[in-house]
Amino acid sequence: MNVFDIIGPVMVGPSSSHTAGAVKIGYVSRKLLAEPLKKAEILLYGSFLATGKGHGTTLALVAGLLGMKTDDSRIPDSMRIAEERGIEIIFGEAELRDAHPNSVQLILTGIDGRKLEVVGESIGGSRINIAGIDGISTNFSGDYPTLIVHNLDQPGHVAEVTSMLAHKSVNIATMQLYRASRGGYAVMVIECDQEVPKESIAWLEHLEGVQKVTYYSLKDGE
Amino acid sequence: MTMSFEKLHEIADCALERHIPFWKVILEDDCTERNISAEESFETMRRMYRAMKEADEAYDAELRSASGMAGGDGAKLEQFRMQGSHLVGDYLSEVMEKAVKMAESNACMRRIVAAPTAGSCGVIPAVLLTYEKQKGTEEDRMVEALFVAAGIGEVIAASASIAGAEGGCQAEIGSASAMAAGSVTYLENGGEEDIVHAAALALKNMLGLTCDPVAGLVEVPCIKRNVSGAVNAVTSAQMALAGIRSVIPPDEVIDSMRRIGKLLPACLRETSQEGLATTPTGQQVAKRMRG
After folding, report:
1. CB-based contacts of A194: which residues, under 8 Å, 6+ apart?
2. What band does B1 get if pLDDT is binned at 50, 70 and 90?
3. Could B4 and A9 be called an inter-chain contact, meaning their C-beta atoms sit closer than 8 Å?
4. What is the third-level CATH fold of B8-290?
5. Rounded-to-integer distance, Cα B175 and Cα B60, Å
6. What is the pTM of this model?
7. Domain limits for position A33
8. Smallest Cβ distance to A6: which of B33, B112, B157?
């Protein structure tokens, strides 16, 4: 925690966990989708469901999905802005098991048909945890550039990805591996100290055995 | 890389040993932590101060929160002050008004600066913005005062808590009040001992305060409690500046806040399962919000 976690952040109220954290979950998810949003199903859970209305949690999630940050004064108008942009928003209740009390499940569709399912948790202050992507458990904060590679559970994919990062002088801060079953579907989540170049992400997408690559950049508009 | 401070006396000792002011110890620690220049750290804090000022100026008396419980009270205090009919002096009258305004803006989804939290966002700006306005203090010095507040907050966060869900309201409004007390003591030319004792005196008055918000919203009792936190900060600073000392040393006060927070039952730590939240009126509001 640094001094600007104490004095700061600048944010739209009323709650750092239920408003600012919710904006951040939406924002990170929108970036992971990597194309403009066409449709979002927003499924609330726990305290997000119980007190979300009064805290503007739904407005905050939509604002984040539109690319707004936690200090954007348009957050209260996010539903109207989404409507103007022709984005379909559906709210509901999430059926999650043993999830964090402040959780949301987002089922997103982009304008070019890309689909993404994210489970986000607001874990205190305005800090968040992305706890699931496309049904596989993950664990990352959105504080680092984050590379998520979905691949077949085969030998060599981790080496391919990490040697590419080494070649591009990208240092790995944290790395997690998950799989649904042996030889099945696997995910690696890599938080990096530097941004991963666009062409490297494109290169990864074309590797045999790699099914999907999602990338969260700290840079604006990407 | 240095560890950030876990005791107030470590900051005060460091300032005395190195013959630099309290605020500069905090700034230099930030520079080391984040590997940035002194200028970058100072300018970031200036942006926080200006954001507080903008939030205060943007207050809109017409706004109401989604629950309908919050809004408009800041304007009532302003009108009352303008009529010249006030019990407390000019400074405290305006501190009260600014505290309510900021907390109402937060409840109405306006942009604020969490200090240390969104629920307690009115305390520090109320004390500092009013001070600058009434005394004509230079902005740089106000930014320095914010570093003092940040240092006190950092110690409380590291040694106790600044989250209502962990430590109750004493951790939010209590922390904000201690931070504001130390910073205004600095502005009044208080020394290191005065600063940490002002913080201790303020925090002591807030020990045991529960977090039992109606319908789980950051409105009742949070908004008006920002007033208590702000006024308490000023009176505690005045005591410290007069030479009054907290019998229990500042770091021991913070530790007792941590222990009290742990002893508070979960129903009084931001879960809205007891206290004001479960009064008949509180339950009615909760029912309406769910509907």
Report:
1. A145, A169, A170, A171
2. very low
3. no
4. 2-methylcitrate dehydratase PrpD (1.10.4100)
5. 27
6. 0.90
7. 11-133
8. B157
